[in-house]
Design a protein that fits this description.
Blueprint lengths: L2 H10 L4 H13 L5 H8 L3 H13 L3 E5 L5 E5 L2 H26 L8 E4 L2 H14 L3 E6 L1 H16 L3 E6 L10 E4 L5 H8 L2 E7 L3 E8 L2 E7 L2 H24 L1 H10 L1 H7 L3
Helix pairs in contact: 1-2, 2-3, 2-4, 3-4, 6-7, 9-10, 10-11
InterPro entries: TrmB-like, Tscrpt_reg_TrmB_N, WH-like_DNA-bd_sf, WH_DNA-bd_sf
Pfam family, one: TrmB
Protein name: Sugar-specific transcriptional regulator TrmB
Length: 271
């Protein structure tokens, strides 16, 4: 990880850009240093370096010490101690807000639905759905997207969420939960027909992400409409049922049935 990456992560945890630079400079010095040296090492302007160091001292990320010439010098809180403190503060804030925010939130006028216009937005929102699941989780997914969500799906299974996954492609998901490899129809046939990789993620049958990845683009929707989420869950459940039937009676028998039953032919007819 580069120094720039470190600075960006510190800012995500609440430090300003100058504070992050000054803290990294203190850590890198390995000894007490004065404000002039912090400015020289960090690039923080000399006109603001003492104000910045004061903010680090106020948040407990640095300490003032007296140097040999009785001048004020600064030492950083060790990185491990800083990160432990940040984690405690963050966890405490999340715990407090978990109970406080719902009390101030207005009831929505309608069920939330919004578009997702790129791959990262899709995966981030799908991760939110997985993280929010408490009872059951239905997922239909290809390996490329599962690699991004695997850890969160495994965490959901670890907190006793009933996980059901339809796994497409050459790298079937081998994690916990009820996993069904999509073999009927063959994944390559599905991809040829639809021209994109479908993703469906449904948490507790109350919220869902549905979309597609293909040709270097991604698109889809998030919805908290329980009717739409229920339909998305039923889509995955019926696909699972089809995989089980294909395993039990054989793909050839299902092909024969689909080819000879008029009602199935009507429903499956392509326009």
């Amino acid at each position: 990880m580069s120094t720039q990456d470190v600075l960006e992560h510190l800012q995500r945890l609440g430090m300003s850009g100058y504070e992050a630079k000054a803290y990294v400079a203190l850590v890198g010095a390995g000894r007490p240093v004065n404000g002039y040296e912090v400015a020289k090492r960090s690039g923080v302007p000399r006109s603001t370096v003492y104000e910045t160091l004061g903010k680090l001292v106020a948040r407990g990320a640095a300490y003032e010490v007296r140097g040999s010439s009785d001048a004020t010098e600064y030492l950083p809180l060790p990185p491990e101690s800083l990160l432990d403190r940040m984690r405690r503060e963050f966890d405490g804030s999340v715990s407090a807000l978990r109970s406080a925010l719902p009390r101030v939130a207005a009831a929505p006028e309608g069920h939330l639905i919004h578009n997702l216009k790129d791959a990262q937005a899709m995966l981030d929102r799908a991760g939110d759905v997985v993280a929010g699941a408490r009872r059951d989780l239905f997922v239909s997914i290809w390996p490329q997207e599962m690699r991004a969500l695997r850890g969160q799906v495994e965490e959901a299974a670890g907190r006793d969420v009933e996980v059901s996954v339809v796994s497409f492609g050459a790298e079937p998901f081998d994690g916990p939960g009820n996993v069904y490899e999509h073999r009927y129809s063959a994944p390559e046939a599905v991809l040829e027909e639809f021209r994109y990789r479908l993703i469906v993620v449904v948490g507790d049958r109350r919220e869902a992400v549905v979309g597609g990845f293909g040709d270097g683009a991604a698109w889809g929707v998030y919805t908290a409409d329980p009717a739409v989420a229920l339909m998305a869950a039923e889509f995955v459940r019926q696909d699972i049922a089809l995989q089980i039937l294909a395993d039990r009676v054989g793909a050839a028998e299902l092909d024969r049935l689909f080819a000879t039953e008029p009602e199935l032919l009507r429903l499956l007819r392509r326009r």
